[in-house]
Write a structure and sequence with these properties.
The complex is a heterodimer of chains A (537) and B (340). Chain A is mostly helical and 537 residues long. Chain A has one domain: MetI-like (MetI-like fold, Orthogonal Bundle), CATH 1.10.3720. Chain A has helices spanning 3-33, 39-43, 46-79, 85-91, 94-97, 100-114, 127-152, 156-163, 168-196, 200-205, 213-223, 227-255, 272-302, 311-316, 330-361, 363-374, 381-391, 405-427, 431-439, 444-472, 489-497, 502-528; strands at 80-81, 268-269, 303-304, 307-308. In chain A, strands 1-2 form a two-stranded parallel sheet. A two-stranded antiparallel sheet of chain A has the order 3-4. Chain B has two domains: 26-127 and 255-308, D-Maltodextrin-Binding Protein, domain 2 (3-Layer(aba) Sandwich); 129-252 and 312-339, D-Maltodextrin-Binding Protein, domain 2 (3-Layer(aba) Sandwich). Chain B is built from eleven helices and eleven strands. In chain B, strands 1, 2, 3, 4, 5, 6, 7, 8, 9, 10 and 11 form an eleven-stranded mixed β-sheet that branches. In chain B, strand 1, helix 2 (41-51) and strand 2 (54-59) form a beta-alpha-beta unit. The longest helix of chain B has 28 residues, at 167-194. The radius of gyration of chain B is 22 Å and the shape is globular. The chains are: A mainly alpha (537), B alpha/beta (340). At the A-B interface, helix 1, helix 6, helix 11, helix 14 and helix 15 of A face helix 1, strand 2, helix 3, helix 6 and helix 7 of B.
């Protein structure tokens, strides 16, 4: 490995070690080795195993549904060119950045307007509501990851199969699906981890009767002050997460085919009635999954006591230099959010690219490191936040009250997106291209820049977009000690919703819509950035 | 952007910046609070001017998280002063020896009912009551007591919060324990459950979800004594009088305290800040920022509070030590009875 590759390898590993493994180990050992800790008593409790089982099956169901529902959307984005395609791709990320409190409000409003919040068919405080919200939140992960890969798959093989008499379904199952498998399984495992460690959705939409391992960790650690119990549940959660990751790696090796892509887009304009109908059906499926709650949200933000208007938006800027019940103004919160998210995305992208280079080279070791980077997604944010407080308290890493902790923690969550987006593409690069370049006298750096970079640029940007969106959203905001002058938009929304008075509720909705618009525009801009000489892509 | 080298350089810079920002030891008084804390900028500026002490605030999450974090960092605290621990979490803080005793001269103006800790490890700063709130849109004649909530005419009208996840939910459970005694409260909740009480995880989902204020169909909600005041003061469109009222016999008193953290770096400055929190200047600023009431007898309430507050003559109370001993047992029992 050359010098740059070595640096790239070192960077993400030390990042993970310092900002994830070390704080996690610190808090777990404090909990497990403290006075009065009795792990066996915790593990012997039947209610814990009930919670664990519920956590597992709702996550599995959420993952299967999300993946299945996202496939038609992924197909249309990969195969059809149409006006607004970039907007759909970017807009699909919006649910990701919405704080769970806002989405819960939107779902409740939706249930009420559809008349399924009470009576014989009630979705309020149900497992169905939890699963629906998980699909809504995670849909974009599968949609964007799979469509990016699908669009660049060599269409020739499918054509040949069809010519040899295969039905479209046979061609899809035997030729396309195996080559899509890395992207499908990769994004599905991210969806699983998000659903498995779901916190806000379960608490807010599931109602008081539903609990997951993550909500139990929060309850024991912060409300009951029983860190020992929280630590034991965390270990159980980690074991389950590691088990899932190992399984998904095995599946991926068994069922996926990695082969060179030609890098030519297969997207065409729809021709003829049949193709148009198919296109609109698939686009409708995207609208059905994402549309309801988003429309409900926008509607609420314009609702005033006397019909519709801009009152909520106006009152956001009406306070004397700040939103009435918050320490800062809306524009300050927006600025803070954008800066922090940009920094988090940058760290996640740099570390994620490095991790991808290492993972794709190393065989079993590569798979292992790849899985390790996904662990932060499967870890309780609350416990990790407490771990930061305990572990990062000595110079040179006395970061407990530093704002930098927020983008760093968010980059931990963003990194897997970059990794999972880039890996399938990097693996599909024809090794002969690299060899040819080297033979012609290019240095390893030059080879990387001339061969690898143009190929993975799109995937990298897509992953970076996710990292940015994850950071714009809620993660960590509820546990970290922060400075009031670092108010971010999701935190502002969360606090507004917790305030009395109807004014704050309207402001929270208006701020959510601003966050939605901001996200869509940011992703559109990010995905337009191209390296020189790769315009043909 | 020009490929990997730029990325590596930028990241290296970022990491270096992180490393350099560590280890700062400054002479600033640090106050850590829960996330509902708010004070006017000019009030803090006035303190800084009077004393020459610079103040910075740190925001944690809810009270439970705030106390948990303080316990974990007791030997090396992140702040000098902690604000926001209340009587439902107080005993955990005291048992863990979180605070240094300090008897502020300002306590002379604070009624003794608020001075819960005789050793003055914490100083009362504000209080509020958690009460049953009723909307005017309730067609039946309004209930007046817990006893009424057992009656069929209020069937499926009340929405409250889970005491395991919500501060007002916990206060409401404690209110019923104070009202019915440790032997009688379980029967009340069995009846309430039979009468169709709804439960949410937090205050927002109850008040702005199930309750009529947010478009729901429930007309009775567990909320604060100041909620009717907020209906007027923080209305989207101005209204003259609140559309909700409270039941004064169902109120549990929550007192919020500030304390100087053991091992604080600036204990002297911390004492001055505690003194400042009991001045009229700070106390008068409390109601409109946090929608709770000042503890000193010399503080002046804003007009909107005076006009719309229903005075709670004899709020329900429980000893903080008893709450500390029994809370987890009570909440677990409540979950069994009400959520089954």
């Amino acid at each position: 490995m050359n010098r740059i590759a070595r640096m790239l390898a070192l960077l993400p590993i030390s990042f993970l070690a310092v900002f994830f493994l070390y704080p996690l180990a610190t808090i777990l050992s404090r909990g497990l080795l403290g006075d009065g800790a009795d792990p066996m008593a915790t593990l012997g409790s039947a209610s814990l195993w009930r919670v664990a089982w519920f956590t597992l099956w709702q996550a599995a169901l959420s993952t299967v549904l999300t993946t299945a529902l996202a496939m038609p959307g992924a197909w249309v984005l990969a195969h059809r060119r149409f006006r607004g395609r970039a907007l759909v791709r970017a807009g699909a990320v919006v649910p990701f950045v919405l704080p769970t409190v806002v989405v819960a409000t939107a779902f409740s409003a939706l249930f009420a307007s559809l008349g399924v919040d009470d009576g014989p068919i009630s979705l309020a405080q149900s497992t169905a509501a939890i699963v629906m919200a998980h699909v809504f939140f995670n849909y974009a992960v599968v949609l964007r990851t799979v469509s990016t890969v699908w669009e660049r798959l060599d269409i020739g093989l499918e054509d040949e199969a069809r010519m040899l008499g295969a039905t479209p379904w046979q061609a899809f199952r035997m030729i396309t699906l195996p080559r899509l498998a890395p992207a499908v399984l990769g994004s599905a495992s991210i969806v699983f981890l998000f659903s498995f460690t779901s916190f806000g959705v379960v608490l807010l939409l599931g109602g008081p009767r539903k609990a997951t391992l993550d909500t139990e960790i929060w309850r024991y650690a912060t409300q009951r002050g029983e860190l020992d119990v929280a630590a034991v549940i965390s270990v159980l959660q980690l074991v389950a997460v590691i088990g899932t990751l190992v399984l998904s790696t095995v599946f991926q090796h068994r069922y996926s085919v990695r082969e060179p892509t030609r890098g030519v887009s297969r997207a065409r304009r729809a021709v003829g009635t049949r193709q148009h109908v198919a296109q609109w059906l698939c686009l409708t499926s995207i609208a059905v999954v994402l549309g309801g709650p988003l429309v409900a949200l926008v509607e609420r933000s314009f609702r005033t006591s006397g019909g519709y208007g801009l009152a909520s938006y106006r009152s956001l800027s009406a306070g004397e230099g700040r939103i009435s019940v918050l320490p800062q103004s809306a524009s300050e919160a927006v600025t803070n959010s954008l800066w922090i998210a940009a920094l988090a995305a940058l760290i996640a992208t740099a570390a994620g690219l490095g991790a991808a280079v290492v993972s794709q080279r190393g065989g079993p070791l590569g798979s292992l490191t790849e899985a390790a980077y996904l662990l932060p997604l499967g870890t309780s944010g609350v416990l990790l936040g407490l771990g930061f407080l305990l572990a990062l308290d000595d110079p040179p890493l006395d970061l407990r009250t530093s704002w930098i902790l927020i983008p760093l923690a968010q980059a931990l969550v963003g990194l897997p997106f970059v990794l999972r987006a880039v890996l399938p593409v990097i693996a599909s690069i024809d090794e002969r291209l690299r060899e040819a370049a080297a033979m012609l006298g290019a240095t390893p750096t030059r080879v990387w820049r001339a061969v690898d970079l143009p190929a993975i640029w799109r995937a990298t940007l897509m992953g970076a977009g996710f990292a940015f969106a994850v950071s714009l959203g809620e993660f960590g905001a509820t546990v970290f000690i922060s400075r009031p002058e670092r108010l971010t938009v999701p935190v502002a929304i969360f606090r507004l919703l917790g305030r009395p008075g109807t004014a704050a509720q309207g402001q929270a909705m208006a701020l959510s819509v601003i966050l939605m618009a901001l996200t869509t525009v940011s992703i559109l801009v990010v995905e337009r950035v191209r390296p020189r000489g790769s315009d043909g892509w | 952007m020009r490929g990997p080298r730029t990325l590596v350089a930028v990241t290296a810079l970022a990491v270096a910046a992180v490393a350099c920002s560590g280890g700062e030891r400054d002479d600033v008084l640090t106050v850590v609070t829960h996330d509902a804390f708010l004070v006017s900028d000019d009030v803090i500026a006035s303190f800084e001017e009077q004393t020459g002490i610079d103040v910075r605030f740190l925001t944690s999450a809810d009270v439970g998280t705030l106390v948990t974090e303080a316990v974990l960092t007791r030997d090396d605290p992140t702040a000098d002063v902690l604000f926001g621990i209340d009587n439902t979490f107080l005993s955990r803080g005291l048992d863990e020896e979180l605070f240094l005793p300090y008897e502020s001269p300002g306590l002379a103006n604070v009624p003794t009912e608020f001075q819960v800790d005789d050793a003055h490890r914490v100083t009362p700063i504000d209080y509020g009551d958690v009460c049953v709130n009723v909307s005017r849109s309730l067609t039946a004649s309004p209930p007046t007591s817990f006893e009424d909530l057992r009656q069929p005419e209020y069937s499926s009208q009340w929405v409250t919060q889970n005491p395991e996840t919500s501060s007002p939910g916990l206060a409401m459970l404690l209110a019923t324990i104070a009202a019915y005694g440790e032997d009688g409260w379980e029967d009340f909740w069995i009846d309430a459950a039979d009468n169709g009480v709804a439960v949410t995880a937090g205050w927002t989902e109850a008040y702005f979800g199930a309750f009529v204020a947010g478009g729901g169909d429930r007309t009775i909600v567990t909320s604060y004594a100041s909620s009717p005041v907020a209906e007027v003061a923080l209305a989207e469109t101005p209204i003259d009088s609140p559309t909700t009222s409270i039941l004064p016999d169902t109120c549990f008193r929550q007192i919020e305290f500030a304390g100087i953290l053991a091992n604080a770096e600036h204990p002297e400055a911390a004492r001055q800040f505690i003194d400042f929190m009991l001045t009229d200047e700070f106390q008068n600023d409390v109601p409109l920022n946090m929608f709770v009431y000042p503890v000193t007898s010399t503080a002046v309430l804003p007009a909107v509070f005076v006009e719309n507050t229903t005075v709670v003559e004899s709020p329900l109370r429980l000893e903080p030590t008893r709450i500390g001993e029994m809370r987890d047992e009570w909440t677990a029992r409540w979950v069994e009875l009400v959520l089954r």
